[in-house]
Specification:
The structure holds two protein chains of two kinds. Helix content of chain A is 48%, strand content 13%. Chain A is α+β, with helices and mostly antiparallel strands. Chain A has two domains: 45 residues, no CATH class; 343 residues, Cytochrome-c3 Hydrogenase, chain B (Orthogonal Bundle), CATH 1.10.645. In chain A, the strands form four sheets. In chain A, strands 3-4-5 form a three-stranded antiparallel sheet. The longest helix of chain B has 19 residues.
Chain lengths: 397, 233
Amino acid sequence: MKVLTPQGEKIDLLTVNIGPSHPATHGALRAFVALDGETIASAVSEIGYLHRGFEKMVEQGTWQQVLPYTDRLNYCSAILNNVGFCHTIERMFEIDVPDRTRELRVLLSELSRIIDHSVCVAAAASDLGALTNYFYLFNPREKVYAIWEKLSGARLTNTFTRIGGLYRDTYDGFESDVAAVLVDVETGLADAFRLLEHNRIFIERTRGCCPISPEDAIAWGWTGPCLRATGVERDLRKDEPYMGYETYDFQTVVGTTGDTFDRLMVRMYEIQESISICRQVLSRLRPGPINTTDPRLILPGHGKTYHDMEALINHFKVVFEGVRVPAGEFYGSIEAANGELGFFVVSDGSGKPWKIKVRPPCFTQFAAFANLVEGSMVADAIACLSSINIIAGELDR
Amino acid sequence: MSQTANTDLGRELAPATAQERKAFQDHAFQVLSSRFQGTLDAADRWGLTVVLPSERLREAVVFLRDSDDFRLDLLLDITAVDYLGYPGHDEARFAVVYNLRSQRAAGRRLRLKVRVEEETPKVPSIHDLYRIANWQERETWDQYGIVFEGHPDLRRLLNHIEFQGHPLRKDYPARKRQWLSSNDPLVAPMVARLKSNGFTVLENPTPNAPSVEETGLLGKVSREQRNNVENPS
């Protein structure tokens, strides 16, 4: 198409679709770009290819039935979404979960963060042609999935937490499995670091590629590792500690320039911090109850249900009518792998949600994508897209 | 780092105590009620939600974003609530909710709410105050049919361009199905984008996605098949 440039020169732009089905979109995203040679003159993006109507469907069932839907938001770290949702609802009930549950949730959240960051870094590196990292980072990830499978029976969509507790306690040998997987992650990460950190090709592809200033990043609503890459030291685990994060010793990782290199490096160093948190949890994990005793939330045990009329009624009402979340409006959030994962919840006091709106962290990142890539090369846009870690499940809901 | 070293963004925040949160909320409500006719929303029993008249929304948002006592520089989300059939609800059918947070100090969070009547579902757009508001307002329009006046490009965001209705309204049936076939060529947004980037468009781009006629999809699907999709037995 013929256009006049801002300088008044008449040029011919080529319009190209990147996606929705493109190896580098890792899901279904579409960017429609106008190219001047290999440089992106203008870009517009389209989302919604994975829109399933999460927010409509969760209004159809009970509060407990929301949980399997949350798995499918950020499916690279399903347990983090489970934790975020349950934590929000528990705050509406103003109840505390037992210590063991809180610690296990921290452990599982950090393991989820590790595999989520591994996916992002490994996929970004392989998009740039550095496939070896993929194996170094994905082999330990596979072992984490083996733990998930032993814990919950599912690899990807675990639905492991419950409102007021967990699906069940850990299995025998869980601690040693986690300790072993942490060593594997450490080794794989060290290998990936050696391949990437001082690799001239990687640095030249990612340094200075699609940077963003801290002020712009905040105006675009960015949170999480992408915001920290710009040098803004904000992490909900530190700023508004929840689930006892204030008792763990870890650092907030920040970058300096907010470019693709920083975004990936922040994630790699955050894996190290998460490993450290996991080890701290392992050292303090003690046997104990995993569910709250609040009868509004938790099913009575089988022994009681079979022999006690009130317990049977309680069981029936919790299952069929759902837990009765106190009426009102609440917003709760946690630091998920991509940033602030929030749930805005409206309850009318019944067993079904009136409304649940997810605040997906990568929505804000992808909204800025067209702005980020304008003026850079197509190949840089691919590198940039991998580094902002767009997960279509939570983007489109 | 030089860019952030001078500001407070490059420094870790000390978590806010419960007293500090309470003091912030009290101060925020006091200011919003005296200067912008805000009223307390009793539905939020855990934090602070202030209901504002829609004509004061933009002023209040600018104030909250820029004044030193608040610096609510992060717009977390915009969404709406449909109260059709909500027990005991006697206000307007819809409310638009703005979720704000500060990155400059810990514990500064609040929500603003604008009540919207069913007959005139309109609120002023704040797309120029926060860049992310553009997409958030598009999503809210798509899902609830609330018009953001002054929005430059109020298109559907999550749903398909041919989609009819606004699915998160309580009177939209959850199991309703619609036949959606064509691609969005994105030509108009691209032209607008080029213009805003300083280009003069001499001829419109050709759509790169195949049309329905080209894919032959229309010819292959009978009216009966299409009917089966929209009205499953």
